Amino acid sequence: MAHGYHTLQHWNQWLHRQFLGNKLLDAEQKVLKDMLKRHFGKHAVLIGVPQQYHLLDSSVIPFHTLVSPLSHREEHPGEIEANLQDVPILTGSTDLVMLPHTLEFVEHPRHLLAEACRIVKPEGLIVVVGFNPFSAWGIRKLFTRRKSAPWSGNFINAQKIKNWLRLSDFEIEQQKSILFRPPVDHEKLYQKLTFLERMGSICCPFIGGAYIIIARAKVIPLTPIRMQWKQRLSNLRIAPTITGTIARQSEPHT
Fold first, then answer.
1. Between vectors from CA 166 to CA 201 and to CA 2, what angle results, nearest 5°?
2. pLDDT, tens only, 69-96
3. Segments of the chain assigned E as strands
4. Domains detected in the chain
5. Are 181 and 199 in contact, with CB atoms under 8 Å apart?
6. Which of 21, 46, 45 lies closest to 131, judged by CA?
7. pTM score
């Protein structure tokens, strides 16, 4: 399965032009806005494609940056065009990093996740959004002969993502499933199936078409170092003065 620049380009076009692509972005932005409303900071980074840039508006963090190999006509203030194998951002400099389906369209998803974890500050958040392979969306991918985006992506199980995050010293804080309706392209039929969203979230919360995982970077405690005193202090005395000066005891005169 080929992944790379052209795959991300097709994925970006699908989000922009297709009915399901628009519905996917709307659903994710709505849920993320609720999940991130209590997280504050200064810098938020999205690693993905230009059509996903407005997912950053789900956060109250003011400064936004898009890292993408695709350039965009509408130049975003914080857009960085870069290869996703090495994210050109300083280690531990970002309060929030978003990976919306990006891991599904790159050759080495675990390496990219490790790069995203690297740039997160201690106590910062990482958000991973992915398609659930055990859902109606996963079934459609299985039976779609012509593998174009998003069905050309590598749908990764949420449990595997959580394991990778834990190995990077992140603690899972929230997980939510969305899109319980089947991925039908007919708008009227899609609207008629709205009731499945509420029913699915109550009865079968783990079969949604997509999942959102939020994890927080752990703070590694510093280990105190005990001083190894080897100097002999037999010739020193502490003078009982307010200043606490250390005076050398003079040798007795003979």
1. 75
2. 997 666 666 789 998 888 999 999 999 9
3. 43-47, 63-68, 79-81, 94-100, 120-131, 170-178, 210-217, 236-238, 246-248
4. 5-217 (3.40.50.150)
5. no
6. 21
7. 0.84
